[in-house]
């Protein structure tokens, strides 16, 4: 095994070494060694990719589609994305100049940060939020400005955005909106987004809209997007990972104005050259014919959400009712204090239930834990029993 040459460790990019490893995955790995643990930690569907989507990839392989795809993505995939966005949001994107295939939304976020941010520029991040945002922004040389939304039902308000832009976020280049939210499951209304759009326009900044959970919204709630109101300054990011259980396929897309997309496609070509051929074929099938797949998944998740919410509330845990995605962000009963890392660690050790500490999601997350209900009803019922026993005995 090679050992790094003496003194070279001090020559590694200090910006990278100063960024901590993603805390969510690190915590998940740590508790994975506990025998018999039920993990409600990672945001990954327990469902399998639908058969018709898998068949599309297999057929693509059989047809020897094994050469470099265009750097922006294959024509059929980008056309499918364009048609899907027109159908779901009523927005128009030219597949030839306003769309780009990505390796999941994670790569899309990296592309957006690298394209929008010059070194030292700020980007506003409403929190609690998926903690990977912070590292991505810092690697691009930017400065994430956290805005605690916990006192506003976990939604960024136009008043809070204005206040931030006038103070610690003064001069910010952009704001990120995650809708539906990870970790809270909260969903922005049409009115919410219209009001935010007015502020974003007034201060002449970009909007980055992460909509990976858009298909998983419950009840009468409807998904709206900033691109419906300010398309000229919005970068829309989404993909197939959550809606049709394609996390391991790593496929997503970026949509935005053509002038901006030229730069984003350039960044994409340097990062990955192109997205895998057969993955794009599978994603094309999912976009064109997968509506019933995510409808069925959504029904399962909603049932599980009610099951877990009821079980937690009976044991003194409080939360803003999730309206989308597949997470519950629950406040720990006061008798346990506010140290969510200690609580989650103890729950894993003693009750054998894995949950994610809320402080990993930034300001406003302390004293909370995130539970993913992308798990079987059997697991959720057993997890509730164990949480109930732990809560009563401690």
Automatic annotation (TrEMBL):
GO terms for molecular function: transaminase activity. Its EC number is 2.6.1.-. Its cofactor is pyridoxal 5'-phosphate. It comes from the Bacteria. SUPFAM superfamilies: PLP-dependent transferases. Keywords: Aminotransferase, Pyridoxal phosphate, Transferase. Gene3D superfamilies: Aspartate Aminotransferase, domain 1 (3.90.1150.10), Type I PLP-dependent aspartate aminotransferase-like (Major domain) (3.40.640.10). InterPro entries: Aminotransferase_I/II_large (IPR004839), AspAT/PAT-like (IPR050596), NHTrfase_class1_PyrdxlP-BS (IPR004838), PyrdxlP-dep_Trfase (IPR015424), PyrdxlP-dep_Trfase_major (IPR015421), PyrdxlP-dep_Trfase_small (IPR015422). Residues 37-387 form the Aminotransferase class I/classII large domain. Belongs to the class-I pyridoxal-phosphate-dependent aminotransferase family. This is Aminotransferase. It comes from Lactobacillus melliventris.
């Amino acid at each position: 095994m090679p050992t790094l040459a003496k003194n070279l460790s001090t020559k590694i990019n200090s910006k990278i070494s100063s960024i901590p490893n993603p805390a969510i995955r690190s915590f998940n790995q740590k508790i994975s060694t506990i025998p018999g643990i039920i993990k409600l930690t990672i945001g990954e569907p327990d469902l399998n990719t639908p058969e018709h989507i898998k068949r599309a990839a297999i057929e693509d392989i059989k047809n020897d589609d094994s050469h470099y795809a265009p750097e922006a993505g294959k024509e059929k995939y980008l056309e499918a994305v364009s048609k899907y966005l027109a159908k779901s949001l009523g927005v128009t994107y030219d597949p030839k100049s306003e769309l780009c295939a990505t390796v999941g939304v994670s790569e899309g976020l990296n592309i957006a940060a690298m394209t929008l941010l010059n070194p030292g520029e700020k980007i506003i991040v409403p929190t609690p939020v998926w903690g990977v945002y912070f590292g991505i922004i810092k690697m691009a040389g930017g400065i994430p400005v956290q805005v605690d939304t916990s006192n506003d039902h976990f939604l960024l308000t136009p008043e809070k955005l204005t206040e931030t832009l006038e103070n610690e976020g003064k001069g910010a280049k952009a704001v990120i909106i995650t809708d539906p939210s990870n970790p809270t499951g909260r969903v922005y209304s049409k009115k919410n987004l219209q009001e935010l759009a007015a502020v974003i326009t007034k201060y002449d900044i970009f909007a980055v809209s992460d909509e990976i959970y858009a298909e998983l919204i419950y009840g009468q709630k409807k998904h709206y997007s900033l691109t419906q109101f300010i398309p000229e300054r919005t970068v829309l990011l989404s993909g197939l990972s959550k809606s049709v259980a394609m996390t391991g396929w790593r496929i997503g897309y970026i949509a935005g104005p053509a002038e901006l997309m030229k730069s984003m496609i350039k960044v994409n070509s340097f990062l990955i050259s192109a997205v895998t051929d057969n993955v794009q074929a599978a994603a094309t099938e999912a976009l064109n014919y997968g509506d019933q797949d995510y409808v069925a998944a959504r029904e399962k998740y909603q049932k599980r959400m009610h099951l877990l919410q009821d079980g937690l509330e009976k044991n003194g845990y409080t939360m803003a009712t999730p309206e989308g995605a597949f997470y519950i962000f629950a406040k720990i009963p006061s008798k346990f204090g506010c140290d969510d890392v200690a609580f989650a660690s103890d729950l894993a050790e003693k009750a054998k239930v894995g949950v994610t500490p809320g402080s990993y999601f930034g300001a406003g997350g302390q004293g909370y834990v995130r539970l993913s209900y992308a798990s079987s009803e059997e697991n959720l019922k057993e997890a509730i029993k164990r949480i109930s026993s732990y809560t009563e005995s401690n």
